[in-house]
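Ticket reopened. Same input as before:
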Amino acid sequence: MNIVVLVKQVPDSGTQRSLDPSDNTVARATADNVINEIDEYAIEEALQVKQAQGGEVTILTVGPASATDAIRKALSMGADKAVHVTDDAIHGSCAVQTSAVLAAALQQLDYDLVLMGATSTDGQVAVMPALLAERLGIPQLSGAQKLTVEGSTVKVERQTDGGFWALEAPLPAIVSTWDTINEPRYPSFKGIMAAKKKPVETKSLADLGIDPATVGLATATSAVVDFAGRPPKGEGVKVTDEGDGAQKLVGYLAEQKLV
Amino acid sequence: MAEVLVLVELNPADGTVRKGTLEALTAARALGEVSAVVAGGPGVAAGARDALAEYGASKVYVAESPEIDEYLVAPKAEVLAQLVAQVSPAAVVIPSSPEGREVAGRLALKTGSGFLTDVTEIAADGTATQVVFAGAQIVHSKVTTGTPIYTLRGNSVAPEPAPAAGEQVPVEVTLSEQAKLTRVVDKVVEQKSNRPELTEAAIVVSGGRGVASAENFSIIEGLADSLGAAVGASRAAVDSGFYPHSFQVGQTGKTVSPQLYIAVGISGAIQHRAGMQTSKTIVAVNKDPEAPIFELADFGVVGDLFQVAPQATELIRARRG
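Engineering reply: fixed in the latest deploy. New output:
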């Protein structure tokens, strides 16, 4: 069972994030960048499937040179090797273009299962599994809270409002995971040391056979026109409960015609 | 006038049109003459047509086949792609559910188009508004390639009736093998609730770590029920096992934008703010006067939620008689 896990480096959602005013793309150079949190659950799931079925776990990342930090983190958890697609021409790509790059990179790998986080904390588009399934012609099983592989069949519980859908498809397939699926391990000291020696292959657009003119800001399928900080909310009212807090609260709701 | 396609989402329980679809029909009118697209199992459109006509659908395309519901996402994208090729619409607008976003993405690839997800507004010239980075930034974007495809965030646009003909147009469904890869074997409902759906609700009452136990969430539910509200939970509450993940509001859960959001025992970490910051009015109850949630709150009560929330519930019940 060969598994590829897609990992994205994102600006830390716990810090102030912005767009770069020079070209309206996500300001990554000045940000505190970390591995997309939900991707850790996909890595953990891959390691558990490997443990049960054998095989190899490969990390695939598209991103600037600095994304190696996210790759090392993934390798230190226990993944075997990584492919890092990096090329200046990719900067500013939209989801449609990024999916073309990821699909081309996947086509050069030997996989039975592709795993990824259900969403990224920067763009929050949550569409990449669908885009890759469409491009590669493989089944999409997105939003998993549970994954089982039985022979050549993959079964997933897709989280829905108040329940789940049971999905089933033949391998190879692409699965995205929510943070309900497992509890990711912390990298051990041994894992961190071992990660430094694990192979990371760097690929350019040329290596993938992609014309640089088809990706990047200039030919993106959508464009940011402008952006601005959201105006701060006016100072709110804050009262301390002295037995009358609930009364004041309901009074406020009534004043605002909310009750 | 150019045609604009709106993909219809129905309530799974009763087959009526979901509020998010009425909002999409309303927003789509800025771009042209609205046609609704109903895709689902046989007979699915029957309960939907009147509401679609009332909210501005001149035409209702009806694509019915048992296979549409048997397979995940891909069949609906194929039906829409077929219609886009036939009628060359000015745009496609889809409610921003997980399925809606995925249909939008696949449709974009099938039609050589760009797409924008989770937009809160669409202007007549096609410029869309998105609120990003936990509500910190407002971004205006345009699709520059192909047929613009938008998914509309729930509760961003007030649905307004605008009666139209609602002429039914049957669509022949022939799915490719590619659309029939992921089979939906079962749809399991674990929590039956009479409360409104979280992303659609006008009022949301959420509990956090301060609620302290699963049993205590009955206090949150009581306050919610007094207001006819949906119940939400912070990640801390969900991770502690107080409430199920499908009710989580925040970065790794739902994004909500109700008229009124009441945060009870929630400190207001960025993880949570990301999911509720665009709520119109925010009320917070927390015993810590320094809790960051108060920076967002229009009205805050510093106090013990176990006192304030039950008392507020009683007062609201009394007002409502």
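The longest helix of chain A spans residues 39-53. The mean pLDDT of chain A is 95. Please confirm and we'll close it.
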